[in-house]
Amino acid sequence: MKNLSWLIILGVCLAAAWHGEAGDTDEAPMAETERQSLYSAIQGFVGSWWNGSDLYPDPCGWTPIQGVSCDLFDGVWYVTTLNVGPVHENSLVCSANPVFTPHVFKLTHLKSLSFFGCFVSPRQNPVMVPPESWGNLADSLESLEFRSNPGLVGQIPSCFGQLVNLQSLVILENGLSGNVPPNIGSLPNLKRLVLGGNSLTGWIPDSFGGLSKLLILDLSSNSLSGPLTSALGGLTSLLKLDLSNNLLEGKLPMELGKLKNLTLLDMRNNKLSGGLTRSLESMCSLQELILANNPIGGDLRILEWEKLQGLVALDLSQTGLTGDFPKSISKLKNLRFLGLSNNHLGGHISPELATLPSINALYLNGNNFTGELEFSKWFYGKMERRFGAWDNPGLCYRTESLSTRHKPFGVKPCQEQGIVVDKPTSEAKLGGSRVGQNVHFMASLGCSRHGGGYYGFWGPFLLEVAMLLLIVVKSC
Ligand SMILES: *[C@@H]1O[C@H](CO)[C@@H](O)[C@H](O)[C@H]1NC(C)=O
Ligand SMILES: *[C@@H]1O[C@H](CO)[C@@H](O)[C@H](O)[C@H]1NC(C)=O
Ligand SMILES: *[C@@H]1O[C@H](CO)[C@@H](O)[C@H](O)[C@H]1NC(C)=O
């Protein structure tokens, strides 16, 4: 026991000595105006009870304020990061009626500003993003984030377009509406642009095509409409493009083929039409192609699918596609999820699908596939309910030695042609297709959580986001 206390004392001394060594910079001053601006800004968000002078006489010092960090500029401390929101136990948590005070815009060395779960009551206390003054932060600001603030309403200020050093702009799951300001498309250094989960309307601006350094574009879960601009072909660095859950219409632009580095293209739940475009073939890095639930139509065989060898997930469910099952799909060696359900597809289902080493979910239900399913008992056993072939009137399975556990759900045995055994109830059908949607994420991300749509996608994505931030920080 005694030894332990000595160890602790020794530890404290070492820490103090180490701290003393770093003392040179600790003793550098922080300009009083900077300190006052910081405290007033924080008080606006967390409430006037918060007295930084009492709690943190030296905000960049040894017991820094959680969510605030500083850097030295010419021997003087300035605030470079301000994160508001309940991230850590002693974070800056917003009050019931937080406000933006103009003092935020006096922190002219800020590189990163973020608000998480701060403005939460759209009824009692709706808050607008200040429409002006952002230009004051233009020389320094590299990352601006608003996440999960349903009480943040009004439009995205067009003066965000003045933040020329911005590398990451994230406005995710807030209450913002109105059009997307076109001048965001002229931010020359932007690598990540996330405007998902708001109520944005109007068209995607052509100007976005100028974001040639952009790696991630997420405009999902808004009410964006109109045709997709061919300018999207200018996003040549893009890795992820998520436009899902909007009201977008018209054809898939041919220019998508220019996105050679794109790994994810998610446009599910829109109103896209006009058939698949052949240029998708040239998106050689594509791993996930999700176009489900769009009236796309046309023939599935227009593409030579085997050219997309990186594909891990292909979801073309409910897209009005026609044509026979293309053998080229069964040559996609990396495929884990294949969704072709509820289309007008016909012909024979290629037994080679079972030879794909990673195949984990296969939905072919609700089509006009015919003939005999030639998969083994082992395959049905492995896939379980992730094999969907019901609602194909001309399809049957070979009964020999199949136990009731290892037979395809809702498909009749070939020996009993015309007699539909095991017809699924409508509830089972619904459940089946819903499971299909969720399973996609498990299949494509190797994640065993039932994420469910949008959140399921972004959850595992956070790691990547963190890595990107690291890149952003390093490059300063
Ligand atoms: C904060 O505390 C200091 C020192 O106790 C005091 O002088 C100052 O008036 C207080 N400020 C506010 C806003 O309460
Ligand atoms: C695409 O990715 C490759 C390899 O990561 C990289 O070298 C190349 O610069 C990228 N292309 C663009 C246009 O960013
Ligand atoms: C289904 O396929 C059969 C045989 O190929 C064909 O005769 C029939 O018209 C098709 N039905 C539909 C609804 O497409």
UniProtKB/TrEMBL annotation:
The keyword Transmembrane applies. Keywords: ATP-binding, Cell membrane, Kinase, Leucine-rich repeat, Membrane, Nucleotide-binding, Repeat, Serine/threonine-protein kinase, Signal, Transferase, Transmembrane, Transmembrane helix. The keyword Transmembrane applies. It is found in: Cell membrane. Its main location: membrane. Its EC number is 2.7.11.1. It catalyses: L-seryl-[protein] + ATP = O-phospho-L-seryl-[protein] + ADP + H(+); L-threonyl-[protein] + ATP = O-phospho-L-threonyl-[protein] + ADP + H(+). This is non-specific serine/threonine protein kinase. It comes from Eucalyptus globulus (Tasmanian blue gum).
